[in-house]
Amino acid sequence: MSRILVPVDFSAQSIQAVRFATAYARDKHELTILHVIQPFPSRHVVNKLGRQSVEKIQLDEAKEDVKPLIEIVEKAGVAYHLEIVFGNPHEEIAKYATDEYIAVVMGTHGYGRMTGYLKQSVSYPTIHDAKIPVFLISEETDASHFPWRNVLLTVDGSDQAMAAANTALQLSEGMDVSFTLLTVVTPPVAYTGMYGVGWEDTATLENWGRETLRPYEELLEERMIPYASKVLIGDPATLIRETAQEKEASLIALGHHGLGGIAGTLVGSVTFKTIHRAQTPLLIVKS
């Protein structure tokens, strides 16, 4: 039986992530519920009470706080293993997120790129460090659609996008799922009287988009999987969210180019922009 890693805190986002993971895991996968306790911040308290005493208090509190999450898993009848460890959350998650697991499922607050960095979002460094696919689940997701029925495959011609498409297909095996391929062409910056190299109108951009889609269409056709295709022109993150709402997608799959928090912020990573306020579960894959 394959395993899914589910890092949790005690937030509404983690509750939704556990619900998503149990809906997907039924009769197929075992869950590892991972909670990371951060070291107690006050050295004076630690020195006075002793590290072992402080950690015992923290561990007892964590076991009590994690009970509502475990009840969800047990009610669903899904096999699980509980791990509670001490350390930095994203570093400990990265240690576990190896190929022993098929995916990570975790909650996200949906912070913007800079806010997420400043507030030390755990999901951003996990995406960067994890060697396996990561599902991100927000509090606003509709649990009645878990795990997923309609997948929006967002592609851009990269190796990462092809890896995301292959992963989404693999994880959807045995499920009744429909697929929509989406590529968004960002227009080159054009000044008055000048055009970007190689294009003169939107028809050219649409042709670029159709060429981008073709390898992914062939992938689906080889596997005899029905699909719809869509080419849009504009800002990728905005149009991905709008298309997901229009198509009533219950999962968005996209490739990640591996940029960290600062680099992703500076270059405008589509992944980080899509995470921001996303209400649809995300599957993020690096090649």
TrEMBL record:
This is Universal stress protein UspA. Belongs to the universal stress protein A family. It comes from the Bacteria. Residues 2-137, 148-286 form the UspA domain. It comes from Brevibacillus choshinensis. InterPro entries: Rossmann-like_a/b/a_fold (IPR014729), Universal_stress_UspA (IPR006015), UspA (IPR006016).
